[in-house]
Amino acid sequence: MARTFKLPDLGEGIHEGEIIDVLVSVGDQIEEGDDILVVETDKAAVDIPSPYTGEVTGIAVEPGDMVNVGDTIMTFSGGEEEPEVEEQAEAAEEAVEAPSEPEGAPGEGAEEAKPREAPAEREGPVPAAPSTRRLARELEVDLRQVPPSGPAGRVTSEDVRAFAEREEEEKAPPERPEKAPARAPLEIPEVIPRGRVPSLPDFARWGEVERVPLRSVRRATAKQMALSWSQIPHVNHQDKADITELERFRQRHKGRVEEQGGKLTPTVFAMKAVVAALKEHPRFNASLDPESEEIILKQYYHLGIAVDTDRGLLVPVIRDVDRKSITELSIELYEIVQRTRSGEASLDELQGGSFTITNIGILGGTGFFPIINFPEVAILGMARARWEPRVQRDDEGAFETEPRYMLPLMLAFDHRVVDGADAARFMGVVKDALESPGSLLLMM
Amino acid sequence: MVMGEQTLETDLAVIGGGPGGYAAAFRAADLGFDVALINQEERLGGVCLLRGCIPTKVLLEVANLIHDAREARSWGLNYGELTINIDALRERKNLVIDRLVNGLGRLADQRDVQVLQARAVFEASDQVRLQGPAEVAHVTYDHAILASGSTPIPLPGTEFVEGSRIMSSKGALSLPDIPESLLVVGAGYNGVELGSAYAVMGSQVTMVEMADEILPGVDRDLVRHLRRRLRRIYHAIHLNTTVASMEEHEDGVTVTLKGDVDEPERTFDRVLVAIGRRPNSQELGLENTGVQLDEDGFVVVDEQRRTDDERIFAVGDVIGGPMLAHKAMRDGKTAADVIAGEPAAFDVRCIPEVIYTDPQIAWCGLTEREAAEQGRDIGLGSFPWTASGRALAMGETSGLTKIVLDAETERVLGVGIVGRGADNLIAEGALAVEMGAVAQDLALTIHPHPTLAETEAEAAEAFLGLATHIISSRE
Lengths: 444, 475
Prior knowledge:
Structural class of chain B: alpha/beta
Oligomer: heterodimer
CATH superfamily of the largest domain in chain A: Chloramphenicol acetyltransferase-like domain
CATH superfamily of the largest domain in chain B: FAD/NAD(P)-binding domain
Order of helices and strands of chain A: EEEEEEEEHHHHHEHHEEEEEEHEEEEHH
Helix content of chain A: 25-40%
Distance between the termini of chain B: 71 Å
């Protein structure tokens, strides 16, 4: 029996991905569990294993295609039947054993028919009129994804049409900019909140242009940033930490950490300093739920670390930073950065953060204003540390100047959840921790 | 190959002239395809029309009339003693069938569907060989739709013989006579329908059933009303009972029963065996195609009614599911639409089922029993017909209308009805289920008064705790 493989759910909130590689060809014999494709989602490249054993009879995608959960990817023939089907066959068998199955077998027949149709039925069919269901098939819309407008979650034909139009626009947005659609604002902002921005001019009038599709990580970043910027009232707070002592400390210990396979970077210290501040100021380790009007305080310290990769910006998450030593963190951070850069980080490792640190120090800069990683409450930015003159008065009142190694710190926070004074206090804790490596020493 | 054998080339070959087959053929022709409809029998219509749904309905009307005439005595109407002219009755049944068969023939002609009388055997994925009166020997096609139907199952070790006293539904519907005593084996819907028709016409009917209930699988509160009637008109119903042996002789059939019976060996004038049907999937040459069968012999298809052979679709009884004409017709139309490139699929939310007895039982969608088996949180709205003015006026108060709803969303998941006319009433329930209607939709739709249809609105109101004609208590 021919079996269709549809793109499975890739994890929390991830509905689509780009096919990076197809690992099999038509005619291949595949064992259940063999990897058959690589899909890059918003966050990570994921190897997708085959749910079936059998021969690949058709491949509906090629590298570069964007696919949605539920899209048909491949077909298989031969091999054993799907588990669901076997279960049904068993159920049917039982039904037949039930003694007098008359013509038409009322009752059992119906039971047998239903599971035979669609395994998805299990989650319960979406309430929609038959004509609406047909329209959905025609427009290739998955009813499950359509936000319903009717009572008790009923999807109307209008809902399906509106959804299909949105999809269409998302797929090929500025192909014909003159047609830039005026459309209802969405609850969640799109990559580019169309409808509120004027259409683009025809740039080709002034010279040659190239259109590059917004894909994968770039697209996800665009979406995430638009979301964050439009939803969160950002305020920035800046300071500088004197890390002269810390830097000495770092230079002294980095060799030892390196021997253990880690890399002792300023970020590692910043992680520890941030956890200290989060513990004192738990509202920075939170999310705002505007619907229930609640602040969700997280009882864990999972820090996202922004990583610049060939594919774009990714944020792997280090869990339970409070329970790990500086050495452990040095090793873990180094490893996960490597894995993220090579695309081997799993989806799991790229979600679940409660606060983010972004350090662009290695690339220079005296400061920048980071955007909060929605739905977190704050983000700490680190720019390049530099030697600067510190001017202070000695006991006799004379000015003296001393070179100090200064790290610029930028904190962006959600003003709905915390205030400027909170931010100053939070920053104070971070600064204190970084300026007194003695306290950090205890965390080695 | 014989010299001069003709081969017909067509876009679509439909194999089987029952409801699944002719619905597919007609739809495909309407969509512009060149269609050959290959039918083994002389007449179109299949089991449904020739020896199933339609003839049983003729008998049902007879039974209803007899019942009503008897009931009417207590209303002051007396038609005198009943006499039945079985020949005239058979004639009327045949007339009904003839008119419908002729109608189908005309519909096929008007659509230029070429009807070939033959048995079709697959020689390859794209060709069948015809055996039978048709002049054509082979048909090659782009697509085929297999609608070969099903056949009644005889008791183990026996087979049905034309003219025998041991009959299938086909034999019973040929109305040979009204036997003095009739044994019905199997209390599924076929046995119950035909058994009660014969009982009302005067046969002494004994029914045996292997299970511990009649109409296994159907909600008990619906069956209760029918069981009460059957107890009155049947001579006996033996549950947990099977037939150990049967011996046919010139003036009867001697049967040995095993189970809950005092007197195991008895002689009946006739025996009706109604224990189920099996798919006609053998000796069709399917091994010469990519079509796959499941272990029960049903053709395996997907939602589009596509088999494992890309050229061949299959519909109706031969693919399993409820073996019902209306389900087969939807199958057939789906397959034809899909072949025409339409975005069709068999994605129905319910297939209404009707037991044509008096009272009738009809249901669609989720039953209370299924909900319990699934552990699903449901709400129920019930309206007994004793509270319906119309039912009382009709003298048909043995009835119940019941709606199964999702407890949380109040969406209608299923409807069950027992009572006169349940077959027509269930259509509203099916529409509600398909449309995803909620209790309020039914309650707020004005139903004409006084009708039996009102009971559906009142059942929805009962669920909401607001029924007009009963004191509601939400179960």
